[in-house]
Amino acid sequence: MRRVAICSPLRTPVGKFLGTLAPLNAGDLGAAILKALVERSGVDPERVDDVVFSQGYGSGEAPAIGRWAWLAAGLPIEVPGYQLDRRCGSGLQAVVNAAMMVQTGAADCVVAGGCESMSNVEHYTTDIRTGVKAGNVTLHDRLTRGRLMSQPQERFGVISGMIETAENLAQDYDISREAADEYAVRSHQRAAAAWDEGKFDDHIVPLEVPQRRKDSIRFERDEGIRPDASMESMGALRAIEGRTNPDAIVTAGNASQQNDAAAACLVVAEDKLEELGLTPLLWFDSWAAAGCDPARMGIGPVPAVERLFARSGKGWDDIDLVELNEAFAPQVLAVLKGWGWSEDDSRREMLNVNGSGISLGHPIGATGLRILADMAHEMQRGEARFGLETMCIGGGQGIAALFERAA
């Protein structure tokens, strides 16, 4: 199989839920990142074979959003595109799908991207297709409904949402509220420091956001970071499920955010790089996905990484940088215990060195590519050879992939 290069990974800043990016829907965000990718990479857009885009909350307003966003960006109509959904792992799956297309010769140059506007996820009903003769019509919030229905209830019962799954892991792995808050503070501090040191500058795509009855504003920095996060401020927050669970430890501070963003990269065959005028940042090495109990979905990276190492022949001694998406602080800490990392394990120093979902945000469909863009540039700075990206997935899955730094 052909060797696969990752070129020009870019991302927008991440917006808070109902924050600065709320005037832009998912299609707008996707179009913006695609336009920037073509401009910054210098690739001839007519040489792109396909556009693979991830989105966790698809909408009839922009169906097959890879194709929709490509067209909205004013790019060639001859290039096809599609949409995929592996929930939180969707963005990484988009890269994987693109890589497999290139490896097998089905394509030479593929755009892998992801976008999410959680601020604009719709409410919907399943009650009126065949008419309602009397009574009420139910409107579901797709955000909360998607979490409730992430598994077939006939088999697994009702799981109230992802918070419940994190609380289950906190109980299973004896994770304390203090440890969860400490980890959250670490995430915010590292993200704030990364911005202050200019670590995201080279691959951030600022956005012009329209405003009502006034000029548009330029959005160019992640919106959810709390530079002043402390144990005192975290400790003041109430547990979200505290009323029904006296042992609950998940708060708005030690959980990931709901967000808006987009990210993308070029996935290219090694033997086409020179012809296309592209320079790789990473080589795609290997990947794996695995299933787990939906009620403990956050542990998914443990079996996924185990499967990845078994398939690739790599192990922890080969890894220089780890990006484990922070769905919840207790979920991260449970995964570290599942990996056998002690509290003073030196490997923790290579984990999420610039923050992750708790501080930078978790715009579901864009997260995997947001992580990849940040990780690729960090690997260049630190001359890390192998980087591991992994995340848990609602419904009980994990996904993981290895990337090697290009010289």
From TrEMBL:
Q: What is its EC number?
A: 2.3.1.16
Q: Where is the Thiolase N-terminal domain?
A: 4-271
**MF GO annotations:** acetyl-CoA C-acyltransferase activity
What pathway is it annotated to?
Metabolic intermediate biosynthesis; (R)-mevalonate biosynthesis; (R)-mevalonate from acetyl-CoA: step 1/3
Which InterPro entries does the record cross-reference, listed alphabetically?
Answer: Thiolase, Thiolase-like, Thiolase_C, Thiolase_N
* Keywords for this protein: Acyltransferase, PHB biosynthesis, Transferase
Q: What class of enzyme is it?
A: transferase
Which residues carry out catalysis? 88, 362, 392
Q: Identify its protein family.
A: Belongs to the thiolase-like superfamily. Thiolase family.
**What is the official name of this protein in its record?**
Acetyl-CoA C-acyltransferase
Organism of provenance: Alteriqipengyuania halimionae
